[in-house]
Amino acid sequence: MSMCSMIREMWLSTFIFIALVLYLEILFFRLARHRKIVEPEVVGESDSEVEGDAWRMEREDSSEEEEEEIDDEEIERRRGMMRQRAQERKNEEMEVMEVEDEGRSGEESESESEYEEYTDSEDEMEPRLKPVFIRKKDRVTVQEREAEALKQKELEQEAKRMAEERRKYTLKIVEEETKKELEENKRSLAALDALNTDDENDEEEYEAWKVRELKRIKRDREDREALEKEKAEIERMRNLTEEERRAELRANGKVITNKAVKGKYKFLQKYYHRGAFFMDEDEEVYKRDFSAPTLEDHFNKTILPKVMQVKNFGRSGRTKYTHLVDQDTTSFDSAWGQESAQNTKFFKQKAAGVRDVFERPSAKKRKTT
């Protein structure tokens, strides 16, 4: 059960209870007015009371005698008066009841209006807007309403005009596209007509095809012969001894295409590798000097301070090393660097990696090592 329904039921029960209490109060007041009960009291008798009782008894006796003497007309008259008083009393009661009904109906209408108000407020679940005072000059008047209607009408006319312009533009585009398609079809038909080779000489085409086919066969045969020749040369070089192979290489030196010229690099000059692909092709672009300086390498960096004689100075990726000669720790003044008979004998017989021996060591030597 939601909070709104709980509040609604609470208010409804409160109004019903109040109406019931009012109705009971009015009912008790009515009964008390028409029936006043006097409780009995015990009082002392006096001479005046005794005299009053005697007078009352005498009066009753006289009244009885008078009643006997009253004729029938007087009885009818008294009965009519009693009926009239009863009717007046009944009218008064009806008036009181009408007043009570009006009060009850007013309370019920108030409760119903409040109930409807609460139900309406519950039905209005949308957020309420804050009331804002609008100045007189800012309020919408009849003239402004007419101006707004006129403006709305102008906007509708403008929208219709724009829609008509868009429709015309669309029709124009469709017409242009149709013309383009027709022209494209015409060009396609013209190209198909140009491809008609019925009138050409088939004999000439056949002769040209034979020439191309013979060239292809010749090229394939030359490639096959070159491959077989290369395989035979490799096999022949494998069968030669070491001395014969050296003599062969000295006699027939290897021809190097696009041999790079060993240039001289400047201090801290950047090195560019030219690569190894397509170097067998004899072209001018592969014969250029790749050791030539570029950009900032043209400047002489030896005149810079020592701290600036590094690569990428002032950058995060800089290095403290300049070149290999600067980092060389070879001591040419040591005993190992002197040219003597003992050093020469050691290098030829004992030193590893410097002897001119390319034979496989014996099994005994392999075991000892």
UniProtKB/TrEMBL annotation:
<keyword id="KW-0175">Coiled coil</keyword>
<dbReference type="InterPro" id="IPR033194">
    <property type="entry name" value="MFAP1"/>
</dbReference>
<feature type="domain" description="Micro-fibrillar-associated protein 1 C-terminal">
    <location>
        <begin position="121"/>
        <end position="329"/>
    </location>
</feature>
<feature type="transmembrane region" description="Helical">
    <location>
        <begin position="12"/>
        <end position="32"/>
    </location>
</feature>
<feature type="compositionally biased region" description="Acidic residues">
    <location>
        <begin position="108"/>
        <end position="125"/>
    </location>
</feature>
<keyword id="KW-0472">Membrane</keyword>
<feature type="coiled-coil region">
    <location>
        <begin position="210"/>
        <end position="247"/>
    </location>
</feature>
<protein>
    <submittedName>
        <fullName>Microfibril associated protein 1</fullName>
    </submittedName>
</protein>
<feature type="region of interest" description="Disordered">
    <location>
        <begin position="47"/>
        <end position="130"/>
    </location>
</feature>
<keyword id="KW-0812">Transmembrane</keyword>
<feature type="compositionally biased region" description="Basic and acidic residues">
    <location>
        <begin position="75"/>
        <end position="93"/>
    </location>
</feature>
<feature type="compositionally biased region" description="Acidic residues">
    <location>
        <begin position="61"/>
        <end position="74"/>
    </location>
</feature>
<comment type="function">
    <text>Involved in pre-mRNA splicing as a component of the spliceosome.</text>
</comment>
<comment type="similarity">
    <text>Belongs to the MFAP1 family.</text>
</comment>
<dbReference type="InterPro" id="IPR009730">
    <property type="entry name" value="MFAP1_C"/>
</dbReference>
<dbReference type="Pfam" id="PF06991">
    <property type="entry name" value="MFAP1"/>
</dbReference>
<feature type="coiled-coil region">
    <location>
        <begin position="140"/>
        <end position="172"/>
    </location>
</feature>
<comment type="subunit">
    <text>Component of the spliceosome B complex. Interacts with PRPF38A (via N-terminal interaction domain).</text>
</comment>
<keyword id="KW-1133">Transmembrane helix</keyword>
